[in-house]
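ok so for the tutorial part 2 we go from a plain amino acid sequence to predicted structure tokens. step 1 is just haveing the sequence, like this:
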Amino acid sequence: MKRLVCAVFIGLSTFAFGQQINVNDSLSNPLIPVNKQNLLKDFDLVFFMRYGLDSYLEKDKLTTSHFNGNELRLDLTAKVHDRVGVRFRNRFTAAPTTGTLDHVNSTVDIAFVDLKATDKLNITIGKLSADWGGYEFDLNPIEVLAYNDILDHAENYLVGAGVGYRVNAKHRFNVQILNTSANKLDQTRVISLPEGVKDAKMPLAFVGNWRGSFWNDKFQTSYSYSYFSQAKNKGMYYIALGNKYQNKNLTWMYDFQYSHDALDKRGIISAMSQEEKPIMAEEVSYLDHWTRLDYQMFAKLTFSLTLMTSNAYAQHSVVGESGNSHIRTSYGVSPMIQYSPFKNLNLRFYAAYVGRWYNYSSYAKTELGQVNSSTGRISIGFIAPLHVL
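step 2 — the prediction. this is what the tokens look like for a chain of 389 residues:
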């Protein structure tokens, strides 16, 4: 019996001593080293979310109603050096595919290194958000219930490099050189390429942007010009003129956007063809107007109204050699009420309606079989950029 008691005490003493050694080891060698813990001060982790109950309508009749995870994006920002930072944002509400040109997963919005060369000059390299200009695209995606046609059918995140120069506190210029697409031109697709179209030797894009601020920051601009090499001897040029006025409880934004595409990679006009595998239209143009009004009615209640219209034009492959012809006009309206119950947390509950109408030209109706149509969506849910770290 004495031997058993001694064995038990020896075992307990050994266990306790072992536990003490482990505790001390964990304190002296924490999972995150002490000399690295200061890095957390320069680390941001944000969940961008928009969830809600969506009810869809066609021709003013309810078709379906269900809960929807509209937006879920994870955004990481870190400073790894006095002059070097990194940013990564991934989208979880889209099917992932690997780009055949850039080899980056399509769900990755942005993933870049930001180098601060001087106090006024910075360089970014990686997958970037194309600096289109305009305020529709500048808004966080969780804030936009529906995009106008040009942005809704564009590749907005591309691999490349950018240079930004801040002239002063009021003016900044950005220049980007990007891949023209995430994918090679000859990849398998629903729409066939026109005969004789060949890949460009340098499928690159140039984007130039100027951001200005006037009248004590009450009026701001975001103007840009972009040129994309779509294929050999074929390109797209795009102009965006964004204007923003902000004063006390009122914010008003207006964007003018125009795109002329040698190849209809957006596919809006090309998809009107009645062929089983339509051929991509050539020499098409899109002209968009977009405006949004945000008015804070009370401390916790904000009203927003978005209006937009888009016109599509085509020539040559669609309507012969008759020159530019109007093909389609789309309209959109989206009123929204947002309620913010918390003072120190940007979590908002909203109720909104998104209505879209599509009107076609007589040519599109008779030759392409198009019919005027409309869609609607009633959405009730919440919007939140949740800053975790």
